[in-house]
Design a protein that fits this description.
Elements: H1 11-25, H2 28-46, E1 52-53, E2 61-62, H3 63-73, H4 75-79, H5 82-93, E3 97-105, E4 111-119, E5 127-132, E6 142-146, E7 156-162, H6 166-169, E8 174-177, H7 179-182
Antiparallel strand pairs: 1-2, 3-4, 3-8, 4-7, 5-6, 5-8, 6-7
Helix pairs in contact: 1-2, 1-3, 2-3, 2-5, 3-5
Length: 187
Amino acid sequence: MHDHSGAVFPAAVTAAPILLAIVRDGHPDDGATALGLLDDALAFAVGDRRTRVATANAEAVPLCCALAGHLRRHAGLLAASGAEGRRLLADAAHHWRFDVQEAVTDGDGDGVAAFGVLAGRFPGGTQPAEPHRAGHVTPLAVQVAPYYPLSSHSPDACLSIDGAQLDDIAPPAVLLPSWCNSGQADR
């Protein structure tokens, strides 16, 4: 991260587990500094639409979504880290992710119904999304909406995906919000 220009570099994603270890195991002052660095990285990464990283499940993930994934994996630690940790978790929730576990052609034939696991907070209504896969970039924008009401008690979900063919969404596809790609910070 380069504070003067507000740019976040891919190394921020690599550094996230180290910073989270400092929050967990370090001196409280060092933990507070690490939380601040994570907060800055997530905030500045939202505006940097040019920088993407490869993750285990996708080839070209926006930095903010990759950082949010690290933060969600340490939700208990962050929730126990005071107001700053809880705010960081809330900010990370905007960077939702949907891991497709099964996909079928929608009943009317012009879309796909995907069953899978939702991480983060889906904002509701119809949202622009982009499908991702490990090994290649899919330059496809789709519209997604919950097929059934989402439950706050379970991450399992079914999304209706317009603008996609079954091959585009077949497992192990991952859907991420398109607004992260646009550089827009409003969610």
